[in-house]
Design a protein that fits this description.
155 residues, mainly beta, 2 helices, 46% strand
Length: 155
């Protein structure tokens, strides 16, 4: 899941409140990835551009057997806790200022693309989660929260 903001002229679209000098809307898109040949848009929602992405998380969570992948804008630990308790699987990129408390380091296989993986706790200590730092092939690292997921990175 991800969203894109479309900016408009406030003169032509006064109903789309965004910023003092701009109007805008946000398109939230859920894409279904079945395999490398079968990827299709599954669900979308349009909202005012000023609304935060995480406010639209509940609308898209409706398949308990699916694994959801969220961008940082959807990061909401309270909702993630509820999704975990309801049996959903998901991975989310985390924000740079997210506080992580390391419980221990996990063994990592060399060919997985994972640089390091640690057991961690977010604001709730009830989740069985891990933090994976993955090589994104641009000589930079991305970090993902994995909730009850097999260890690995997403390409």
């Amino acid at each position: 899941m991800d969203s894109t903001t479309f900016s408009f002229s406030k003169n032509f679209y006064p109903w789309a409140h965004f910023r003092p000098t701009k109007a805008g809307i946000k398109l939230h898109l859920k894409v279904c990835f079945m395999n490398e040949r079968w990827v299709h848009p599954e669900q979308f929602e349009v909202s005012p551009a000023s609304e935060h992405d995480h406010e639209h998380l509940e609308v898209f969570i409706n398949e308990p057997l699916a694994t959801y992948v969220f961008d940082r804008g959807y990061l909401d630990f309270a909702q993630f806790d509820q999704m975990h308790w309801d049996g959903y699987f998901f991975v989310s990129r985390i924000k740079k200022n997210t506080k992580v408390h390391v419980q221990g380091h996990l063994d990592v296989l060399k060919r997985t693309g994972i640089i390091s993986e640690v057991g961690s706790i977010g604001p709730s200590s009830l989740l069985d989660e891990s933090l994976s730092t993955c090589d994104d092939r641009k000589k930079a690292a991305s970090q993902f929260k994995n909730y009850h997921q097999p260890h690995g990175c997403i390409s």
